[in-house]
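Hey, can you fold this?
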Amino acid sequence: NLLKTCITLFYEADDLLKRSERDQYGLRRRILFVMNRNELAEKLARLADQKAKLAAIQMSLFLKKSTLQDAMLKQIVAFTEVLQISRNKDK
């Protein structure tokens, strides 16, 4: 009877150790999952920040381009007006 109890205790202890190792592995996996999720969240936040900065730069470039185009159009209109005035004087 004592031998049977010792064998049962041995198997129960072995089972507990195996379960403990599995739990530790599962816990490690959960910790890594949470860490990876946090890293991913940080990367997404950085990416969103970079995207916002890029959009601001693109808008700035667009506005500068529009301003430059407006200035060029004003010069072209002024030049054509001068040409028109000089042609009218020649007639």
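Oh, and this one too while you're at it.
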Amino acid sequence: MVNVTQFDTYSDLPPLPDYQIVLQPSLLPPIPDKLLTLILPIAAYWGLSMLFHWFDTKDFFPQYRLHTPVEVSSRNKVSRWEVVRDVVIQQVVQTAVGWLLGMTGPDDVMGKEAYDMAVWARRIRIAQRAVPGVLALVGLDAVGIAKSLSTSHPMLAGAVMGGRYRTLPTITTSGNSFADPSPEFTSWEKTLAHFIYWYMVPALQYGIAILVVDTWQYFLHRAMHMNKWMYTTFHYRHHRLYVPYAYGALYNHPFEGFLLDTLGAGVAFKVAGMNTRQGTWFFTGCTLKTVDDHCGYALPWDPLQRLTSNNAGYHDVHHQSWGIKTNFSQPFFTFWDRLLGTAWTGGDVSARYEKAKVAAQKKMDQGSEKTTITHSNAVDSATQDPRPYQDDQRNAIGLSSIRLEDQQPLPPAGKAELQAAGSRQQVLDDKKDGGAQVLVQEAAEEKEARSLLKRNGRRRTASSFSQTDGLKGLKDRVTGIMHGRAGAILGVESNR
């Protein structure tokens, strides 16, 4: 416990209160907050993953699934045991780094809140000193305005006079007998200081942390795709999951997992100046968002998927052979992809997305032109600057030996065509788990999906379904054909 008495020379400002510092009690006694910071993100990872796992095994919400169970079992190049093993390894590293952060950081304390709010109130008072000068610049007399307002609006008059409130009671700092009596803070100054301290500052800290982690992950993630050695040495492992699922979100090479996820989040935490409890919520939020982005469902009522356009549909593009060199942004926002031209521009090019799009359209009561799974518009392919993909088609030497029918789906002409060429060449360059067989297999799945859509929508194109269409019959037929002929996503027989 620490007692602090304040002495200052701002005799014309309200004094700062004394305060007594004590250790902040644990959020969930008897678990210390620093230990909770290590436990909660891991519990959140497996908790949300198992929820989606339950959806998979029970075949819930098949209408929102981005890929069929057959694709999950046939296109992925890694066993589920290997995925679980590598995720646990990353979480062990994550826990060790978190422990070091906790040991090198101060303990959270309380008791200084009133003092800190008084500091903000003082800053508000000092900022008011500029008001008379600003009014003078535009030819207004602050003294005259204040006199006219002094009777009807005394608080406003005091603000116009530069924060000099003559009608307020005066107080003197108890610990400083030399301080002259000073007017106390106004109610609006206290309210604003309270709002800044409890809401604006934490919001700014979370905003900075999100900006840092998004920036960190975008540029490192992009580098791992643009640099052939980095991709084939480290990042290829994550892309053994061509059809992602929830608990594969942290399936990475251990070094990549440390560099991209663990270290990135730790740097964001430190740069934002968060305390332990703020870090707990930030790390847990990052974890939940990452799992949700890999869940394989375009759920229209999922708040994490409605929050930003960087969601399961957006990230799924990045796991496909034709979009693997696009959509690098993660885990929160897509601004770096948009600013630097690496967002996929081909629209919902795959027939696999049409089923989820129709279901989401019905659920959210939107027109089809407003509903996209990938958050991209095919029109952009023809209008956007082709950079940084301007050389990708010319450099896709291996792609010339692949038949056109094995390069499906076909992207629209323009930038998306270049993006798909560069992405497919990267898959061909992956000699461990890539190669031509990946393109052939994906093309076969795409052909089957398009055939299914054609049989169930002969009277209109797949993109022209309206809110009045009989979606229930379509849903039943799609579900029966695409899901009923195989076990659920984890190889467990459906109860249906």
